[in-house]
Amino acid sequence: MQLPVLSTEQLELRPITEKDTAALFSLFSKEEVTRYMDIDAFTNITEATQIITYFRENWEKQEGMRWAITLKGQDELIGTCGFHHWNKTHYKIELGYDLLPAYWGKGIMTEAIGIILQFVFEDLQVNRVEAFVDPVNTASSRLLGRLGFQHEGMLRDAFFEKGKFVDAELYSLLRREYNREAIWQ
Ligand SMILES: CC(C)(COP(=O)(O)OP(=O)(O)OC[C@H]1O[C@@H](n2cnc3c(N)ncnc32)[C@H](O)[C@@H]1OP(=O)(O)O)[C@@H](O)C(=O)NCCC(=O)NCCS
Q1: Where's the N-acetyltransferase domain (predicted)?
Q2: Which of 173, 39, 42 is nearest to 118 (CA)?
Q3: Is the pTM for the entire model greater than 0.85?
């Protein structure tokens, strides 16, 4: 089964393929992109190939979905977004997202995550969407706040990243709280 293409006014979210290798390397080799993520900045193009395989296997195992973010009418990958840790027993998923710095602050991820929320709540019957955010990643926290997520608390030493334990702010949005109109207004 092919990953569905999701469209918004400005964006097209499409499957990630081998043709995105160079764009993914450019994205994930930027330290400002990977700073608060659980991966080190890429230094070798083979890491981009490996992450494509990882995203595809996740989808094949039905554990997650990851899309390439493109501007409508332009096929170039400018970021990625999606979810992993898809737990069908408990109807929940965990969000992940990243964007090239040149596109930050233009509302692109609000729009991309907005359409993913619509897809997972309305088509996949997900009940709970979670996100773990580094306490100093203001852009990510504001993004989630704007989309209606609630802050549940801070998890101490939640992840071991880049050689040290880091705390994580836990956010969630439930299906019964999800307001499609409020996101798209
Ligand atoms: C987090 C990220 C995806 C946000 O994407 P974006 O397209 O710039 O976000 P939007 O333009 O839709 O803005 C969402 C909110 O974040 C705020 N924001 C965006 N960039 C910001 C920045 N550099 N500093 C502070 N706030 C910022 C916006 O003002 C907006 O909040 P508001 O509505 O309260 O004003 C982007 O900064 C990024 O790729 N960061 C690196 C990867 C990363 O940290 N991923 C998340 C891991 S949990």
Answers
A1: 11-167
A2: 173
A3: yes
Among candidates 31, 28, 89, which has minimal Cα distance to 54? 28
Is the residue at 1 inside a domain? no
Indicate if ligand 1 lies below 6 Å from the C-beta of 137: yes
Tell me the C-alpha distance between 97 and 81, whole Å.
4
CATH number at residue 164: 3.40.630.30
Per-residue pLDDT of 130-168, as tens digits, reads 999 999 999 999 999 999 999 999 999 999 999 999 999
Q: How many domains does the chain have?
A: 1
SS3 of the chain: helix, strand, coil, percent, to 5: 35, 30, 35
Q: Is 106's C-beta closer than 6 angstroms to any atom of ligand 1?
A: yes
Domain range for 77 is: 6-184
Strands 11-15, 164-174: pairing is unpaired
Query: Distance between CA 160 and CA 120 in Å, rounded?
Result: 29
In a domain, 113, yes or no: yes
Would residue 168 count as lying in a domain?
yes
Q: Tell me, using a 6 A CB cutoff, whether residue 26 lines ligand 1.
A: no
Residue 33 Cα to ligand 1 midpoint, Å, equals: 11
Query: How confident is the model over 32-88, as pLDDT tens digits?
Result: 999 999 999 999 999 999 999 999 999 999 999 999 999 999 999 999 999 999 999
